[in-house]
Amino acid sequence: MCRRCVARFSGVGKMMQEEGQVMGHGREGVWVETQRRSTCGACNARSSCGSGLLSQFSTRKPHRVLIHVPDGETWPAVGERVVIGIDESAFLRSAGLLYGLPLISGMLGGIVAEQLAGTGALAVPLGFALSLTAGLLVVRWHAARPDQQALYRPMLLRRLGVDALAIKAV
Predict the structure, then answer these.
(1) Is the dihedral of CA 111, 112, 118, 120 positive or negative?
(2) Angle of helix 88-117 relative to helix 123-144, nearest 10 degrees?
(3) Which of 7, 74, 76, 141 is the most buried (most CB within 10 A)?
(4) Mean pLDDT estimate for the chain
(5) Region 88-96: what's the mean pLDDT?
(6) Domain boundaries, the chain
(7) Helix, strand, coil shares, percent, the chain, to 5
(8) Cβ neighbours of residue 44 under 8 Å, at least 6 residues apart?
(9) With bands split at pLDDT 50, 70 and 90, how would you rate the model's confidence at 31?
(10) Total Cβ atoms within 10 A of residue 88
């Protein structure tokens, strides 16, 4: 990890980490491919879990993400195994904002519309829909800010080395 990232995340708690493989180089960084994993392998309730049942029928496509490599840092080679990560608290805040704000704004809009127009009126679902849309627009505006985009971007944490089989495949 670069010095700027270490300084930026020095007071941060846990990082959500994932292993991946460098698949190519871009203009600003490297393309890393990760394999989506199901959490059902370690759970005792895997035989009766709906999530585990759904994961059996889904295809497991690899996920590619562009990881920014700061100036002055050496770029990992194609085929090299790396660990990428994102700050756990930033991820949880963004999930709460993404799901919570539109839902709460929609419910408040429906309640206000019900108080103004009464129950059974068309204004209640319309107030809910308009407030939900407003909440989604606020989330979109917040996510588009450059200072927020940097928080949610995965970063290169460490390099694990080159996998000899991966080089032959590339």
Answers:
(1) negative
(2) 150
(3) 76
(4) 76
(5) 84
(6) 3-169
(7) 50, 25, 25
(8) none
(9) confident
(10) 14
